[in-house]
């Protein structure tokens, strides 16, 4: 099957930008032209590729072709760079966009170091997502690579371990005294309010179940901000899980204490990326592995 490169670019732009209008602005064409290219591609493959919602979403066949479009863009960029290095006047063209899904705790700690000094012509589009869900963005072609808790390689991807992020159950001293006067029991965990990053964050429930041997269902506050999360823990809103690196200062000052001293939850993290081998993707992978090695267990 011969696929038109401009049509593939239009499909990828729509899915990455979320609307036909935004894709048109990125490609410097009219929204009508983008729509015509996507429609022509759909007719070519005989399947619907885009769910016309806000934002637009890929169908399963659309995700396959979006991934192909991204791989072609990477290959084109690296070929242009090699030609330029060989003394040709080949311009690199538009920047190569690498969409990467990263969990919030990594994004706020070790991951930024991997992006310092990126090669010219490479731009990153970071998508913040829970480590248990980042692999979904790889499956649907939304991202090129992801920091994920999934050890099994997504189809069409390579995987390598990065290390583990250690999480501690933390609480303000006054909250500990109020809700856990007799220690961490199942009854206390059912009553004590808990903080979670969002509805996909299950760390607190997993830790509680590990402590008492069964699931518990406490009242939950959702706080989707790393900074606010720690501030509200210290202010006494409830207990919650935070990485040891993020909580180091609060533990040192006594603003927060372990809810269950000597217990923690280690979350192994993995780097998954398209199995395509290109200098750009290989460089990003080396950077991520190097940055993780300095911070993760």
From TrEMBL:
Q: Which domain of life is it from?
A: Bacteria
The keyword DNA repair belongs to this UniProt entry's keyword annotation = no
> What Gene Ontology molecular-function terms does this entry list?
DNA binding; DNA-binding transcription factor activity
Q: Which parts pass through the membrane?
A: none
Q: Name one Pfam family in it.
A: HTH_1
InterPro entries according to UniProt: ArgP, LTTR, LysR_HTH_N, LysR_subst-bd, WH-like_DNA-bd_sf, WH_DNA-bd_sf
Similarity field: Belongs to the LysR transcriptional regulatory family.
Q: Where is the HTH lysR-type domain?
A: 1-59
Q: Does the keyword Transcription apply?
A: yes
Which protein, by its recorded name, is this? HTH-type transcriptional regulator LysG
The parts of the chain that form a coiled coil are none
Q: What does the UniProt keyword field contain? A: Activator, DNA-binding, Repressor, Transcription, Transcription regulation
Species source reads: Cellulomonas uda
């Amino acid at each position: 099957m011969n696929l038109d490169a401009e049509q593939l670019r239009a499909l990828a732009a729509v899915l990455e930008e979320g609307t036909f209008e935004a894709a048109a602005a990125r490609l410097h064409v009219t929204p009508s032209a983008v729509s015509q290219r996507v429609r022509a591609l759909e007719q070519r493959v005989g399947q619907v590729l885009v769910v016309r919602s806000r934002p637009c979403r890929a169908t399963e066949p659309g995700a396959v072709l979006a991934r192909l479009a991204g791989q072609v863009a990477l290959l084109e960029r690296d070929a242009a760079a090699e030609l330029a290095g060989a003394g040709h006047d080949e311009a690199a063209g538009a920047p190569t966009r690498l969409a990467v899904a990263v969990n919030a705790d990594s994004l706020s700690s070790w991951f930024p170091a991997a992006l310092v000094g990126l090669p010219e012509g490479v731009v990153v589009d970071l998508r913040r997502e829970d480590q248990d869900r980042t692999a979904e963005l790889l499956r649907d072609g939304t991202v090129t690579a992801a920091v994920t808790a999934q050890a099994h390689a997504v189809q069409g991807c390579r995987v390598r371990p990065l290390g583990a992020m250690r999480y501690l159950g933390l609480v303000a001293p006054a909250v500990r005294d109020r809700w856990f006067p007799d220690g961490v029991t199942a009854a206390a965990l059912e009553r004590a309010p808990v903080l979670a990053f969002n509805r996909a964050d299950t760390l607190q429930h997993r830790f509680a179940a590990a402590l008492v041997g069964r699931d518990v269902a406490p009242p939950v506050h959702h706080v989707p901000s790393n900074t606010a999360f720690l501030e509200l823990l210290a202010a006494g809103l409830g207990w919650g899980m935070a990485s040891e690196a993020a909580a180091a200062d609060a533990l040192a000052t006594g603003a927060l204490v372990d809810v269950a001293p000597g217990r923690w939850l280690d979350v192994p993290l993995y780097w998954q990326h398209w199995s395509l081998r290109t200098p750009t993707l290989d460089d990003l992978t080396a950077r991520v592995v190097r940055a993780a090695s300095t911070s993760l267990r």
